[in-house]
Amino acid sequence: MTALAKPFRISLPAVSRHLRVLETARLIKRQRHGREHLIRWHPAGMEDARRWIAQCAAAWESAFDSLDDLLKTAQQKEKMR
Q1: pLDDT beneath 70: ranges in the chain
Q2: pTM surpassing 0.85?
Q3: In terms of domains, do 3 and 13 share one?
Q4: Structural domain boundaries enclosing 30
Q5: Do 52 and 34 reside in the same domain of the chain?
Q6: pLDDT value at position 59?
Q7: Residue 32 near residue 17, CB atoms below 8 Å
Q8: What is residue 62's predicted lDDT score, i.e. its pLDDT?
């Protein structure tokens, strides 16, 4: 893990915490061989992230559409005054 952390200006414990988050998200896989950690990209985990992002995007899209409708209605009412 030291080699992985070397290019970054953060502490080794901080890198370790970031890697745990990526592991929890199933974006990387870690294998331990004694004191060495082999860390590999796990592309299948990206599919879960992609689906989650798509769901969030759909929710935001819907919210913006509703806001747009509300603003258009308010503008029309203002013009009628």
Answers
A1: 1
A2: no
A3: yes
A4: 1-42
A5: no
A6: 96
A7: no
A8: 95
One domain for residues 37 and 13: yes
Residues 38 and 58 in one domain: no
Q: How far is residue 6 CA from its own chain's centroid?
A: 24
User: Which region holds residue 36: left if phi is over 0, alpha if psi is between -120 and 50, else beta?
Assistant: beta
- Domain tally, the chain: 2
Q: Residue 43, by phi and psi: left (phi above 0), alpha (psi -120 to 50) or beta? A: alpha
DSSP for 20-34 reads HHHHHTTSEEEEEET
Query: Do residues 29 and 40 touch, judged by C-beta distance below 8 A?
Result: yes
In 3D space, the residue among 38, 10, 42 whose CA is nearest the CA of residue 23 turns out to be 42
Give the 3-state secondary structure of residue 67: helix
